[in-house]
Amino acid sequence: MVVQNNLDLGDPRKGILLEPFIHQVGGHMSMMKYDDSTVCKPLVSQEQWFYESLPSAMKRFTPQYKGIISVHLKKDSMGNLSLIACPQTDRRSSLDHASKECSMTIWQKLNQANSSNGDQAFVKWNHDQLTNTIKDSCQEKAILQADLQHHRDVSSLMEKDNGNQTEKNSYNPWGLHCHKEHLNRMSSKYNENKPHQFLLLENVVSKYKCPCILDLKMGTRQHGDDASEEKKARQIKKCEQSTSASLGVRICGMQVYQADTDQYFCKDKYYGRKLSPEGFRQAIYQFLHNGNRFRTDLIEPILSQLKALLSIIKKQSTYRFYSSSLLINYEGMEKATPSDNHSQGHSQRNSYPTSHGNSHPKVDVRMIDFAHTTYKGSQYNQTSYDGPDHGYIFGLENLIKIIQSIPAGE
């Protein structure tokens, strides 16, 4: 097990109960929250290799890599499953300590919701309880016990002319969906003594109060060199039937904070696969709209970072970022202006005072998901490529053009 020295692991005798990362908007593998500044995901050796040999020029546009950690699947006396991270040694006592007094897990609550409300139940996170409910029994290393409230009507569903549904939630439900599926897979081959290795990565949205996140699958090809013929055919079909082929980019998920309702507008990967090029452009517009206005102040900071990333990608010879994603993140809670001091309602509650100095909105662009990335020198390199990843470049260039065109043709 390797963990960077600057990672605060707290008391080494205690296990850490991992919870779903509530701001996961895309992907199929469950992303877990380790602490406020760190998330973790199941380790794929090819991705670990990439992070450990990452070109210095790309570090600005990738999450900080913090090492790996062992995780155990723990079943309590009621049969509920939890994922327990064991930072250092004495793992058996760590598991018992972390799970003994936290038996009401998310797994149990999700199952209760499904049995009592049916499969159509929506999940609503109570944010105050999520961040403030710290179990004293877990002593110095806080274990967050999430409080889930299940309601059929927690989402406001709005039908549009094209039949697509838009969802508004207190939090994006996709992360919980991934977590449940992940536990289902793990429970089918349950082994309490088998450690699972997870990657520790920077939580790139930890600095945001109301993170708005767009997950984009980049490139014209999504299958890795090691894909089976069956998987290769599936991935090629997905690309051909989506904007991956026409634009080199497609939406995998997003959440947008709506200042007018104090909720998140959420979309998943199935929505993104159905979009036409014009539908993709409209979705980008929606991502930059807070329910009250279009955020023109975000255009230049996003374009600046995308252009800088494009310049770097063009110089990465032999790299192929198959099936990787690009995150565009920004702060949904706008800074208050002097006139806001006299405003009423949501506009006053959903803002925070601006500080003297840099008034630019908080915007961040990051590449993620490198399980199928290949390059010369990688021990997982099966095919040699020359030059940069032109499929990725094609997608980035189209994304830049689309964002540039939106303010003029709203």
From TrEMBL:
<dbReference type="InterPro" id="IPR005522">
    <property type="entry name" value="IPK"/>
</dbReference>
<dbReference type="GO" id="GO:0005634">
    <property type="term" value="C:nucleus"/>
</dbReference>
<dbReference type="GO" id="GO:0000828">
    <property type="term" value="F:inositol hexakisphosphate kinase activity"/>
</dbReference>
<feature type="compositionally biased region" description="Polar residues">
    <location>
        <begin position="338"/>
        <end position="358"/>
    </location>
</feature>
<dbReference type="Pfam" id="PF03770">
    <property type="entry name" value="IPK"/>
</dbReference>
<dbReference type="InterPro" id="IPR038286">
    <property type="entry name" value="IPK_sf"/>
</dbReference>
<dbReference type="GO" id="GO:0040011">
    <property type="term" value="P:locomotion"/>
</dbReference>
<dbReference type="GO" id="GO:0005737">
    <property type="term" value="C:cytoplasm"/>
</dbReference>
<dbReference type="GO" id="GO:0005524">
    <property type="term" value="F:ATP binding"/>
</dbReference>
<dbReference type="GO" id="GO:0046854">
    <property type="term" value="P:phosphatidylinositol phosphate biosynthetic process"/>
</dbReference>
<feature type="region of interest" description="Disordered">
    <location>
        <begin position="336"/>
        <end position="361"/>
    </location>
</feature>
<comment type="similarity">
    <text>Belongs to the inositol phosphokinase (IPK) family.</text>
</comment>
<keyword id="KW-0067">ATP-binding</keyword>
<dbReference type="GO" id="GO:0032958">
    <property type="term" value="P:inositol phosphate biosynthetic process"/>
</dbReference>
<keyword id="KW-0808">Transferase</keyword>
<keyword id="KW-0547">Nucleotide-binding</keyword>
<protein>
    <recommendedName>
        <fullName>Kinase</fullName>
        <ecNumber>2.7.-.-</ecNumber>
    </recommendedName>
</protein>
<dbReference type="GO" id="GO:0000831">
    <property type="term" value="F:inositol hexakisphosphate 6-kinase activity"/>
</dbReference>
<keyword id="KW-0418">Kinase</keyword>
